[in-house]
Design goal:
The chain has helices at about 5-15, 30-35, 40-50, 55-70, 75-80, 85-90, 100-120, 135-140, 150-160, 180-185, 195-205, 215-225, 245-250. It has about 250 residues and is an all-alpha fold. It is globular and about 60 Å long. The chain folds into two domains: about 5-15 and about 170-245, Helix-hairpin-Helix base-excision DNA repair enzymes (C-terminal) (Endonuclease Iii, domain 2), CATH 1.10.1670; about 30-125, Endonuclease III, domain 1, CATH 1.10.340. It starts with a helix and ends with a helix.
């Protein structure tokens, strides 16, 4: 393991071991409270993950709360009885909940039916019983519209933020977004224009026990300091080991 990856992993371990606190997915208190209540409303978290495509994350993660307001309820039995056409209606009116309201309404309706049929009406059964991480990722891949990026992201959030325990973590990959790709490139971990597969497998090679452990550290570095333009290298805790930061460091 390089000094760069070691520091990312150490930060990831720190986040994993931290006390569970309210995760601010949206900045809207009621929406965040619903998402964090994975004991009472685990389907809210699952549905938010499913809609987290081709829109800002904050928009997607507000959707469960918006649905609860437009439908007038969110307990699973109530949601399970909502017809497909009603989902399509509330996704579009009075304003679209998503960039692709028709597609996402279908995906959400299908997800609710799958939770009812496959998981006995309790989305928490996706991750109950300290399962292997691969099993949890596989469960998420079974939902319409969910690919490896969303499936591993969801599994990673369960472990890191909600402190759900798995028997292993080796199938939890990084979720390759613009922040992680930019940070990995500037840290010298991947070449420019690396494919998604190259990024994923580099993380696996660097920390095979839990590749996704580096995901949130890279994301927070990208959001706080490692901006596309005018990065604040001096403020970043990776400065001393970052080859790009050393080049950009102003002369003193």
């Amino acid at each position: 393991m390089t000094n760069v990856s070691k520091q990312l992993v150490e930060r990831g371990i720190e986040l994993l071991r931290a006390e569970r606190v309210l995760t601010k997915f949206t900045g809207v208190p009621a929406a965040d409270a619903l998402l964090n209540n994975v004991e009472g409303f685990p389907h809210a978290f699952v549905l938010a993950c499913i809609t987290d495509r081709q829109v800002k994350a904050e928009v997607a993660w507000r959707i469960p709360h918006e649905l609860s307001q437009r439908l007038g309820g969110f307990f699973f039995d109530f949601l399970h009885a909502v017809p497909r056409d009603r989902f399509r209606e509330v996704f579009s009116y009075p304003s679209p909940l998503h960039r692709f309201p028709d597609t996402m309404s279908e995906n959400v309706y299908a997800a609710v039916q799958r939770i009812g049929d496959r998981f006995n009406g309790n989305a928490a059964n996706i991750w109950q019983g300290t399962p292997p991480s691969a099993q949890v990722v596989l469960h998420f891949l079974g939902f319409s519209g969910v690919g490896p990026k969303i499936a591993t992201m969801a599994t990673n959030i369960l472990a890191r933020d909600f402190k759900v325990r798995f028997s292993d973590y080796n199938s939890v990959d990084v979720s390759v977004d613009v922040h992680l790709r930019r940070v990995f490139t500037r840290l010298g971990l991947i070449p420019e224009r690396a494919s998604v597969e190259e990024v994923v497998y580099q993380a696996r090679a660097l920390h095979p026990e839990f590749p996704g452990l580096m995901d949130l550290p890279a994301w927070e570095i990208g959001r706080k300091w490692c901006k596309p333009n005018n990065p604040n290298c001096a403020g970043c805790y990776m400065m001393k080991v970052c080859p790009t930061g050393q080049i950009w460091q102003p002369a003193v």
